[in-house]
Design brief:
The protein is mainly α. The protein has helices at residues 3-11, 22-39, 44-65, 79-88, 96-112, 117-121, 125-151. The protein has one domain. Helix 2 crosses helix 4 (79-88).
Length: 153
């Protein structure tokens, strides 16, 4: 297996990148992993470090394989959605409602590009591929910090 092939499989999460609604499916696939991380009582600092490491690794993987695609932000690359879901749920209360709201709001913001998310997509190369997802995830996390406590009362 070549380096390009190996990194492509990671960035596309195997064959998920070739499925219809691949970003949505990749975001859904992250929920069991996020539940596991939260239920293993991984400290928030360690979760934050994990997010940073995963984000940096994702950047380099995307930067390496991006030249093999025609589009600036190919829909086949779904590793950015995984980073987004990690950020969207960071340090929030763990419940099915939290994960559902995080998933729905993150996908809404990532697809619609509201609140200036589209400006991050215009960044060059891997910055743009990851930028809009990170921005959508940060906005999701901030909004959920207000909504989740109200919804859980």
């Amino acid at each position: 297996m070549t380096k390009k092939s190996f990194l492509s499989r990671i960035a596309l999460l195997g064959c998920i990148g070739y499925l219809p609604a691949s970003g949505t499916i990749a975001s859904l696939c992250m929920i069991p992993l996020l539940c596991l991380i939260h239920y293993m009582s991984v400290p928030l600092v360690a979760q934050g470090v994990l997010i940073v490491i995963f984000s940096v690794a994702s950047f380099f993987i995307i930067r390496t394989i991006l030249p093999f695609f025609v589009d600036n932000d190919p829909s086949e690359i779904v590793l950015d959605e995984c980073v987004g879901m990690m950020i969207a749920t960071y340090a929030l209360p763990v419940s099915w409602l939290t994960f559902f709201l995080a998933f729905m709001l993150f996908r809404l913001l990532d697809i619609s590009k509201f609140f200036g998310v589209s400006s991050f997509e215009r960044l060059p190369g891997a910055w743009g591929v990851l930028g809009d997802d990170i921005a959508a995830a940060c906005i999701t996390n901030i909004i959920l910090r207000f909504i989740v406590p109200l919804a859980c009362q």
